[in-house]
Amino acid sequence: MTQTRRYHQTSLGRIMHGDSLAWLRKIGASSIDLVMTSPPFGLVRKKEYGNVAADEYLDWFRPFAAQLNRVLKDSGSLVIDIGGAWEQGQPTRSLYHFKLLIMLCEEYGFHLAQDFYWWNPSKLPTPAEWVTVRRLRVKDAINTVWWLSKTPWPKASNRRVLQPYSPSMQELLVKGYKAKKRPSGHDISDKFSINNGAAIPPNLIALPNTESNGAYQRYCQDNGLPHHPARYPAELPEYFIRMLTDKGDLVVDPFGGSCVTGEVAERLSRRWVCIEIMEEYLAGALSRFPPLNNGPAKVQAKPGDDSSHYRVPRPGLLWNGVDGEPLPTDGGKARVNRGNAH
Questions:
Q1: How far apart are CA 253 and CA 1, in angstroms?
Q2: Alpha carbon distance 71, 26 (integer Å)
Q3: Percent of the chain scored above 70 by pLDDT?
Q4: Per the CB 3.0–4.6 Å rule, which of 2, 42, 92, 148 could disulfide with 110?
């Protein structure tokens, strides 16, 4: 397919069915404020949504890279959520997503504004062979999110994405803090104890991907439609749309899937376009927009709720000084099934 057609339209945006590369080639240069997308990952196993093999990924992405650089404004940003992959048949990681980052910067002139890491606390322990069977690796629960820009100075403000203070910081603000130089050499001034109302977030985004009974899922189930199997949670594009765009700016997702990006952009009063090549996923995407949906209600975590502050347990909480059985001298190459993890 080389053409695109309008599938659905709202007052702010459009869903397009067809080849996003063909659509991008028709768009004027320097016309888009933010490309927020999660392209098909470079996986070893083929998925129903049409992913590309990891060793072919750079060549597949090159024409997209050229067009994305052309259509972005100098003040604009390209944000790519991309998961990693394992090499086939062995417990080692592919470097394809890092090679993609280097290619975008060195061959197409993008700047790495910042690297983000999306931690999904609800991620299952995969790959099972290396994690739960042979016990050679820990579970893979991180996606990299590359924030790229055409110039070193894209539009951005972290004031749009501030987070509540942690309990320890709230206690410090109450009790006060003595300005001093830390052992690391950092000089912490008395300004550190000023209550600014909220905290600057880190580049680790803790966000579960557990929605199983939302309006989109119910609509697909009630109408016998396929769910897109690789959706990111709405809070992920919302983070970057808030931080990197103003109302009325144009947000584009060239790998639209079920149009989560468009749903968020619509709610935040941004103009938007989502392009998806597989029409069966767009039928369910309609549930995200008028007239089927007047906009989802924003779900806020309640104070004290476990979901308001996800924490990674400190290493060593269960260590008791006993190493257990010796490590396999062959690195686990010979498969010995000693039971699965919990």
A1: 18
A2: 10
A3: 80
A4: 148
At 296 the pLDDT is 46
pLDDT for 189 beyond 70: no
* Cβ-Cβ contacts under 8 Å for 87 (sequence gap 6 or more): 44, 93, 94
User: How far separated are the first and last CA of the chain, in Å rounded?
Assistant: 45
pLDDT for 176: 64
Round to whole Å and give the CA distance between 278 and 32.
23
Which residues carry out catalysis? 38-39, 81
Let me know: does 234 contact 264? Beta carbons within 8 Å: yes
Is residue 13 within 8 A of residue 266, CB to CB? The reply is yes
SS3 80: strand
User: What CA–CA distance (Å, rounded) separates 134 from 334?
Assistant: 9
What is this structure's pTM?
Answer: 0.85
User: What pLDDT score was predicted for residue 199?
Assistant: 82
Residues facing residue 274 across a β-bridge: 15, 253
- What would the two tokens of residue 215 be? 């309006």
C-alpha 151/C-alpha 153 separation (Å) is: 5
Residues in the chain: 342
Count CA atoms within 13 Å of residue 256 on its CB side: 37
CA atoms within 13 A on the CB side of 147: 22
Instruction: Identify whether the C-beta of residue 137 lies closer than 8 Å to the C-beta of residue 131.
Output: yes
Determine which of 57-61, 191-195, 214-218, 263-267 has the lowest per-residue pLDDT on average.
191-195
CA distance 137 to 38: 26
Residue 289: CB atoms within 10 A of its CB come to 20
Check residue 179 and give its pLDDT: 61
Compute φ and ψ for 81, nearest 5 degrees. -90, 120
Using CA atoms, how far residue 127 sits from 39, 83, 138, in Å, is: 21, 13, 9
The dihedral over CA atoms of 25, 245, 102, 206, expressed in degrees to the nearest 10, equals: -130
